[in-house]
Amino acid sequence: MSKAASDGPLPAKESALFKTIVKHYETKQYKKGLKVADSILKKFPDHGETLAMKGLILNCMDKKTEAYELVRKGVKQDIKSHVCWHVYGLLYRSDREYLQAIKCYRGALRHDKDNIQILRDLSLLQVQMRDLPGFLQTRQQLLTLKPTNRNNWFSFALAAHLQKRYGQAVSIIESYEATLEGSPECAYEHSEMLLFKNMLIEESGDTARTLEHLDSIETQVVDKSGMKETRGQLLLKLEKFDEAAKVFTELISHNPENVRYHAGRQAAALRTSRMVEQWQGEELEPSSEETLRSMYAALQKEFPRSSVCRRLPLDFARSPEYFKEVLAAYVLPVVRKGVPSLYANLKPLAACAWKREVMGALFSEWLESLLKTACLPGSKQREVPSSLLWVRVLVAQHHDRCGDTSAAIKHIDAAMEHTPTLIELYIFKARFCKHAKDLVAASEWMEQARGLDLADRYLNTKSTRYLLRADQMDQAQKTIALFTKDGDGPSNLFDMQCMWYELEAAHSYLRTGDHGRALKQFTSIEKHFLDIVEDQFDFHTYCIRKMTLRAYVRLLRLEDGLWGHEFYVRAAHGAIDTYFRIIDEAASGKANAAAAEAQQGDEMSAADRKKAESKRKKAEAKAQAEVEAKKAADKAPQAGRIQWPPQPVRSANASRPGPPLLCRMARRATPMCDQKSLAAAAACRAPLPRRPPTPARLGRPIGGSASGRWL
Predict the structure, then answer these.
(1) Is 489 inside any structural domain?
(2) Where are the alpha helices (DSSP H) in 496-605?
(3) Are residues 359 and 228 in the same domain?
(4) Distance CA 466, CA 458 (A)
(5) How far apart are the first and last CA of the chain?
(6) Which of 553, 581, 693, 698 has its CA 20 to 30 A from that of 263?
(7) What are phi and psi of 462, to 5 degrees?
(8) Which of helix, strand or coil describes residue 688?
């Protein structure tokens, strides 16, 4: 028995025991599975599949070194076993070595080309790495092998969609519809299937057919609001403006605060297919303005409580008289209510010079009238005392927006004398001090605001941010720790992916010259984005199973543009700046050392000078030898890594595994890089291709998920 071939089948008893190893692995009973594997290996120590399974179980028990050794030994003992290669792939996938995992999966398919589980795992890695042609081919093979599985149909359709083969994707869904009999089991899933098909037709460019199909499925669609919104947009594209106006009017009656619905209604009224949500900076003819005026006069009467119906005329107003009229109508009710966030809603209007002047003149006129008569201009009705306070706040914020910080602080001080317990006034004053470049005073005022309500997390966050900008790191850490778990600030903030804190802390460390801690914070942000990219792995099967296909496509597109996010770009630029400073400081340090050494050499005797020169040459030779040894080690292939197949298996969009931090971050932030970023990448001899980057070292634990099975 002990001389059984390593690649031969096990006897019946041991074969049954081997199946129990798989069950123990799937149920996470690792110790039991390890015990059974050892019992088989006592009789057959060179059985490859058992060695591989034992290694997989050890990997789940965090014994990675021993796990890799066992799995590699198992592959060597039974190189034609698809089980060994699949387990090897699972091992690499658990360590986010996706390219190596793909090689292992393809090695497994060479020996069992129709294994459904291996093909499914391979397809997950391909869509994760955006190897879309390979993903399409794998999903087509899976559909051929198991056409009765609904998920295979829609995964194949989705793969064709991602390849922009819209006609093929539509025909796949139509072929699946032809297999359906009777009424659908789940109305929502059937509705999502029909809407996904409608999205495919729309993206193919056939607008008329899209509208025709949408009308035909109207009774079967569950998402009525989404369907009406899509119908309104299609009617605009087809220039059926009267019908589009009816659709968007109905949508506004359901939700008058939705700006998107208003944009559609405006486009229908102006007889254009282009929907505009922000009219600031857009050209508008006088006749078009008059059309919008009359339309919103009617909407304000129909929806008197809608704030959007009163706010949007401020955007498209082109006449100073009309703008002043609608500004007063919008602002006065909010001032009387005492809403602190009012000016934040008006701030975009100040980008226009003449609107900024009208706003300043109107607010100043109100303030003077309230100070003299306690009434607004043209009115004999006395206002409540709080109206004076909030008008002062408006005037102060407008002065700050115009750059007159001293006048803003003067008015906010007067407001604080009027009501010294109002928290928002302290926040505004801290903001004004920040704009005046007095960061220490700004942090002090924000700390006073926090002291008025210690249970407010928002105030705690604002105070921490202002303290970091004032480079008061110790106080900031104590403040943010008040709202972290068990007072453990740094680790808890990292777990919560609190990137605003890490960015502010990194820049604070950079300003104070602590480059090591600054780099640590910048790289923490990179880790968060890697986790976000990795998190999409869970949705590759979930979204297909739950038929949320449209949301899944939006997710994939969001992930493709993730590296252009503001937080990541700022972190990349910060890391590049940090490296520049380290290099500059090292160069200046060497120059100073050389100058000191030269000065010391002038004072040395000839014998001492000769001895020092010999010592310097030996040190340089040793350093050069270390550099050469490191280069040779980098060029040598890594032990244990798969070198099969000969051609590299990697996505066209996949980045090389393990580039230096500076090159990696600069490459991902390329669309928004400045000259410093490009220079840094050039210094590291790394090209910056303009492509949607996808990190190569991603993955997820395989703990007992369905995709972790191999049988």
Answers:
(1) no
(2) 499-511, 515-535, 539-546, 549-560, 566-603
(3) no
(4) 12
(5) 26
(6) 553
(7) -65, -40
(8) coil
Residue 528 is assigned to a structural domain of this protein = yes
Q: Please list the residues that pair with 375 across neighbouring strands.
A: 382
Provide the H-helix boundaries in 402-438. 405-418, 423-435
Q: Please say whether the beta carbons of 84 and 71 come within 8 A.
A: yes
What's the per-residue H, E or C state across 228-268?
Answer: HHHHHHHHHHCCCHHHHHHHHHHHHHHCCCCHHHHHHHHHH
Number of domains in the chain: 4
Same domain, 263 and 339: no
> Where does residue 338 fall: left (phi above 0), alpha (psi -120 to 50 degrees), or beta otherwise?
left
Residue whose token pair is 């050794």: 69
Range of the domain at 247: 223-316
pLDDT at 150: 93
Do 291 and 370 belong together in one domain?
Answer: no
Q: Are residues 324 and 227 in the same domain?
A: no
68: closest CA among 81, 58, 80? Answer: 58
Same domain, 22 and 161: yes
Whether 385 and 311 share a structural domain: no
pLDDT at residue number 492 = 86
Coil, helix or strand for 694?
strand
pTM for this entry: 0.81
Asked whether 687 and 663 are in contact (CB, 8 A), the reply is: no
- Is 131 buried (19+), middle (13-18) or exposed (0-12) by CB count in 10 A? buried
Q: How confident is the model at residue 408 (pLDDT cuts 50, 70, 90)?
A: very high
Instruction: Retrieve residue 193's tokens.
Output: 């299937």
Q: What is the DSSP string of 146-211?
A: -TT-HHHHHHHHHHHHHTT-HHHHHHHHHHHHHT--SS-S-HHHHHHHHHHHHHHHHHTT-HHHHH
> Which ranges of 258-404 does DSSP label H, i.e. alpha helix?
259-269, 286-302, 307-316, 320-337, 342-346, 353-373, 385-401
Residues 173 and 277 in one domain: no
Residue for token digits 């359901």? 254
**Whole-Å CA distances, 245 to 242, 264, 266, 267, 288:** 5, 8, 8, 8, 16
Under 8 Å between Cβ of 402 and 433: no
Please say whether the beta carbons of 202 and 166 come within 8 A: no
pLDDT in tens, 173-228: 999 999 988 888 899 999 999 999 999 999 999 999 999 999 999 999 999 999 99
- 119 and 44: one domain? yes
Q: Measure the CA–CA gap between 73 and 266, rounded to whole angstroms.
A: 69
Calculate the average pLDDT of the chain. Answer: 86
Structure tokens, 209: 């057919």
- Residues 231-286: tens digit of each pLDDT: 999 999 999 999 999 999 999 999 999 999 999 999 999 999 999 988 888 888 99
pLDDT at site 292: 95
